[in-house]
Write a structure and sequence with these properties.
The complex is a heterodimer of chains A (about 170) and B (about 240).
Chain A: H1 3-11, E1 16-17, H2 18-28, H3 37-49, E2 53-59, E3 66-71, H4 73-84, H5 96-107, H6 111-135, H7 138-163, H8 165-173
Antiparallel strand pairs in A: 1-3, 2-3
Helix pairs in contact in A: 1-2, 1-3, 2-3, 5-6, 6-7
Chain B: E1 20-31, E2 34-45, E3 49-53, H1 60-67, E4 75-80, E5 83-84, H2 90-99, E6 101-104, H3 116-126, H4 131-144, H5 160-172, E7 178-182, H6 190-207, E8 210-214, H7 218-221, E9 226-229
Parallel strand pairs in B: 3-8, 3-9, 6-7, 7-8
Antiparallel strand pairs in B: 1-2, 1-4, 4-5
The chains are: A mainly alpha (about 170), B alpha/beta (about 240).
């Protein structure tokens, strides 16, 4: 995910300091991966350089001066263009799991066990995410749901592959 | 070493440490020439939520019906609280299903002529509770399941999600020790299915009921504490 674009999007709500932007980013998007201060300020510098934000005010603080950043008209246009552009759907054509299944079949190991082990691990993670979303805010629920639907898609592939192992085994052996 | 002799690392799934409340041991069941279950085993501890997963036709619903005493296995045994269900007489088995077990099915299976509150009160009435007391408890459970507003409607007048919540209230109103849920969200959209699962699991945890949850959906199974997989009538790895 583009941190710069996200920071720019957050600034549309109003001018903000780097510290507040980081806090807002972490609360809304950084459930597992809080953004580092260095990344926040590097992003703001880049946005400043491209004229997408401007320094709106400089306030004295306990330490160094605090800069308040505001989005420019070009910045708003940039956010708008980014939101309108579809993301490239992720493809998993080089799946490690598929590779493991094929190698298990080729070497005479149990591909069923490979799939079973993975299923148990996927379900463990899905249980954890379900617990998190049950107690979390709506934003957390949406993020967990996104992950859960992807894990579920993996599991459907696991089931289908388990049902086709005989056929796959014959093709691999041929 | 021959690769075929490699042993795999077992998934880090902690075994239940609580004693089993309900156990199926090496259960087999045939319907005519078809073996629905060949060798299925599972344990459910007090208050545990267990998902029974597997593809369509794998035998998971048959396992649930055997565990609940609805079907009698051809071989193997089902133990509830240490006693074999098969050894109980018909009357005692019926009583067990009415008082210690609760059921939620895919399509609710509410009595269409009764109002929602009467449907929920029904298991209490069948166990001898008076109308007023049964109604009071039923209304309380409908409120817990957030469907008290449909109390006086008949099932045909409520949505699928509401009907399923009424069915969950009916399953829990007797405060059973085990709730058997067979694809409880199978007929619902994602949002309604999720709410039914949240309410079913949170209510069961509050009352200490164990849940045997049959589902082929991983997102539904993720509400459970652990899962057992049924494949071709067997529970491999059990």
């Amino acid at each position: 995910m583009s941190i710069s674009k996200t920071m720019l999007g957050l600034l549309e709500a109003g001018p903000s300091h780097g510290y507040d932007l980081k806090r807002e980013y972490d609360e809304t998007f950084g459930i597992d991966r809080p953004v580092a201060y260095g990344q926040v300020y590097a992003s703001l510098l880049r946005l400043l350089k491209h004229g997408l934000v401007t320094v709106d005010a400089i306030e004295p603080g306990d330490g160094p001066e605090r800069k308040r950043y505001a989005i420019t008209e070009d910045g708003v246009a940039d956010v708008e263009a980014w939101l309108a552009q579809p993301e490239k759907p992720d493809l998993y054509l080089q799946s490690t799991l598929y590779t493991k299944v094929v190698l298990a079949l080729r070497s005479g190991r149990s591909a069923v066990e490979v799939l079973d082990t993975q299923r148990a691990e996927h379900l463990r993670l899905m249980r954890e995410l379900t617990r998190r979303k049950t107690v979390g805010r709506l934003a957390d629920q949406l993020i967990c749901d996104h992950a859960l639907f992807h894990l579920e898609a993996d599991l459907r592939w696991l089931e289908l592959t388990a049902a086709r192992l005989g056929q796959l085994g014959r093709e691999v052996a041929a | 070493m021959n690769p075929a002799t490699h042993t795999r690392t077992q998934p880090a799934e902690p075994a239940p440490v609580r004693p089993a409340l309900l156990s199926c041991r090496n259960v087999a069941k045939r319907f005519g020439g078809t073996a629905a279950l060949r060798d299925a085993s599972m344990d459910v501890a007090v208050g545990e939520i267990l998902a029974v997963m597997g593809p369509s036709g794998s035998g998971k619903s048959t396992l649930l019906h055997c565990a609940a005493g609805i079907l009698t296995p051809d071989s193997g045994e089902v133990l509830f609280d240490g006693s074999s269900i098969a050894s109980l007489g018909d009357a005692r088995r019926s009583e067990l299903r009415r008082t210690a077990f609760g059921f939620v099915f895919q399509f609710g299976r509410l009595v269409p002529e009764l109002t929602c509150v009467e449907n929920v009160a029904l298991p209490l009435r069948l166990s001898g509770a008076g109308r007023r007391d049964a109604t009071r408890q039923a209304v309380s459970w409908l409120a817990r399941l957030e469907v008290d507003d449909v109390a006086v409607k008949i099932p045909g007048q409520v949505s699928g999600g509401q009907a399923q919540r009424v069915a969950v209230a009916r399953a829990l109103v007797t405060e059973p020790r085990v709730v058997f849920a067979d694809e409880p969200t199978g007929a619902l959209d994602s949002l309604n299915g999720e709410r039914v699962m949240q309410l079913l699991t949170s209510s069961a945890r509050e009352t200490g009921a164990a849940v045997v949850l049959v589902t082929h959906e991983a997102r539904v199974a993720a509400y459970a504490d652990r899962e057992v997989v049924v494949r071709d009538g067997c529970t491999p790895g059990r």
